[in-house]
Amino acid sequence: MSTSKTVQQLRAEWITPESFRRYGQVIFPELDGKSFDAEDAQLVLDRGIPRFYIMQLHRRGRKFHTITRHVQCTQCLGSLEGKDWLIAVCPPNNNIDEPYLEDIAAFRIPGNCFIKLEVGTWHAGPYFEHEVVNFYNLELSDTNVVDHFTHNFLNSHNLEFEFEILSLT
Q: What are the φ and ψ backbone dihedral angles of 78, each rounded to 5 degrees?
């Protein structure tokens, strides 16, 4: 007996600091010389060795069925070369090992900012339709080894998500 999967559309809205606040922070360019304040990335990187690197991703598309979280640190992501990208997020709920379906949100992120994910924020992405996008990533050196918890919606709900967007130009 074959069971077909359901594809749920997620409308990706342009990210703003207000709309993203439940999940983390959005950092846009500011004039040099501004003093540190609450609008700067509030990082949690004290549980290991910070790692800042550039990851190269190839044609990720707009569909996903897994979502991940890190409970030991914040994570910062941003694209290079001004390319827009997509991410799905769900607020931290560190008491359970599964995100709440009704709380998943999708965002379109312009190439002139970066995001900081709060500790424990579920995230799926980056996704995009460009051939290649380089992203900088700030996390801990062992995040993907010891602090990488993934939930698979195909296994739990026979569900896949697809970002709904007008265009990615």
A: -165, 145
Q: Rounded distance, CA 144 to CA 16, Å?
A: 28
DSSP 145: H
Give the C-alpha separation, 120 to 74, whole Å: 8
On the 0-12 / 13-18 / 19+ scale of CB atoms within 10 A, 116 is buried
- Do the strands 66-69 and 149-152 form a parallel or antiparallel pair, or are they unpaired? antiparallel
Where does residue 24 rank: exposed (0-12), middle (13-18), buried (19+ CB within 10 A)?
buried
**pLDDT single digits (tens) 48-77:** 999 999 999 999 999 999 999 999 999 999
- Asked if residue 9 lies in contact with residue 62, where contact means CB atoms within 8 angstroms, the answer is no
Share of the chain above pLDDT 90, in %: 91
Quick: pLDDT tens for 87-144.
999 999 867 788 999 999 999 999 999 999 999 999 999 999 999 999 999 999 999 9
Which two tokens mark 162?
Answer: 């697809």
Q: What structural domains does the chain harbor?
A: 11-27+44-164 (2.60.120.480)
Q: Which amino acid, 46?
A: D
CA torsion angle 115 64 66 73 (round to 10)? -10
